[in-house]
Specification:
Helix content: 55-70%
Order of helices and strands: HHH
InterPro entries: RNaseH-like_sf (IPR012337), RNaseH_sf (IPR036397)
Structural class: mainly alpha
GO molecular function: nucleic acid binding
Protein name: Integrase catalytic domain-containing protein
Low-confidence stretches: none
Oligomer: single chain
Number of domains: 1
Organism: Physcomitrium patens
Strand content: under 5%
Length: 72
C-alpha cells in the first residue's frame, strides 16, 4: 500500500525514533499480552516448550480475530 493510499484510507503516518520502546507503548503492551498468553497456554495445557511456535500461531490467530474497540 502506498502512502497516498493510506492517507485516503484515513491511516495516520507517524515517525518514531528507532530502538525506543517507550515511544511505542501500544505495541509493547500487545507484545507483553502475546507472551503472557503463550506462557499460559503452554503451562495450562502441560505442553513441552517445543510447542512454542505452534502456540504463537494460535494466539496470533485468536488475537487477530477478537473484537477490539479500536476496530471500526
Amino acid at each position: 500500500m502506498a502512502i497516498n493510499d493510506s492517507i485516503i484510507e484515513g491511516i495516520k503516518h507517524e515517525l518514531i525514533i528507532l530502538y525506543t520502546p517507550e515511544q511505542n507503548r501500544i505495541l509493547e503492551r500487545n507484545n507483553y499480552k502475546i507472551i503472557e498468553a503463550i506462557r499460559s497456554v503452554i503451562y495450562h495445557a502441560h505442553l513441552d516448550l517445543a510447542f512454542w511456535a505452534n502456540s504463537i500461531d494460535n494466539i496470533d490467530y485468536i488475537l487477530n480475530y477478537t473484537y477490539s474497540c479500536f476496530l471500526p
